[in-house]
Amino acid sequence: MKYNIKEVHAAYDNGKIKSIAVLWADGDMYRATYASLKSHHQPLFTKDTELTSKLIERIAGYGHYLTELQKQKYFPHIKNWSR
Predict the structure, then answer these.
(1) What's the distance, CA 24 to chain centroid?
(2) Are 58 and 5 contacting, i.e. CB atoms less than 8 angstroms apart?
(3) pTM, two decimal places
(4) Phi and psi at residue 34, in whole multiples of 5°?
(5) Is the Cβ–Cβ distance between 51 and 20 less than 8 Å?
(6) pLDDT digits over 8-58, tens only?
(7) How many CB atoms lie within 10 A of CB 64?
(8) Distance from CA of residue 71 to its chain's centroid?
């Protein structure tokens, strides 16, 4: 599936990706998913992975949905959430 990606937040530790939050449009609403090195039984990326459009799409599709607190932290300007 192709996602309508609107915004991406990536956190780094010593130049390596630590976590990624992805905001994507779902019609006229928004959804956001998240992945980190520790967020899955089998992580969606490793510390040596580069941030690419393919990785962002993967996190949009298979990441964890953000909690209300994470939504406010990463995307405080969004008000019309789908989930």
Answers:
(1) 9
(2) no
(3) 0.88
(4) -145, 145
(5) yes
(6) 999 998 888 899 999 999 889 999 999 998 766 667 888 888 899 999 999
(7) 16
(8) 11
Asked if 37 contacts 54 with a C-beta cutoff of 8 angstroms, the reply is no
CA distance 22 to 9: 7
- Do the beta carbons of residue 78 and residue 6 sit within 8 Å? no
Q: Using alpha carbons, list the distances in angstroms from residue 82 to 15, 23, 28, 55, 63.
A: 33, 11, 9, 22, 16
Q: Which of 35, 43, 40 is nearest to 66 (CA)?
A: 35
What distances in angstroms separate CA 65 from CA 13, 15, 38, 39, 60, one per listed residue? 23, 25, 15, 11, 9
Residue type, 71: K
Q: Is the predicted pLDDT of residue 67 greater than 90, yes or no?
A: yes
